[in-house]
Amino acid sequence: MNKRLLAILAEVFGLKETEIRPFLTRDDVGSWDSLRQMDLVLSLEREFGITLEMADIVRMESVASIEEVLRGKGVDLGV
After folding, report:
1. What would the mean pLDDT of 65-74 be, rounded to a whole number?
2. What digits encode the pLDDT tens for the residues 8-50?
3. What is residue 8's three-state secondary structure?
4. Number of separate domains in the chain
5. CATH of the domain at 23
6. Which of 35, 55, 59, 78 is the most buried (most CB within 10 A)?
7. Is 37 domain-assigned?
8. 55 within 8 A of 61, measured Cβ to Cβ
């Protein structure tokens, strides 16, 4: 997983990086509420120099879907 994305997810949701996996969903993370979702959006936009649309934000319900959204915005997450 991309180190920059991993660091953002850990910071925003208060998780250890070792706890973050692609299959992790919004329902699995107690702190993933609407406020944290907006923190995530702002952090991703700042870090990767992108603008997320409402449709992108709504789609981001798992780590895998966040990666898909970022790739769709042209972000190179590596392998």
Report:
1. 97
2. 999 999 999 999 999 999 999 999 999 999 999 999 999 999 9
3. helix
4. 1
5. 1.10.1200.10
6. 59
7. yes
8. no
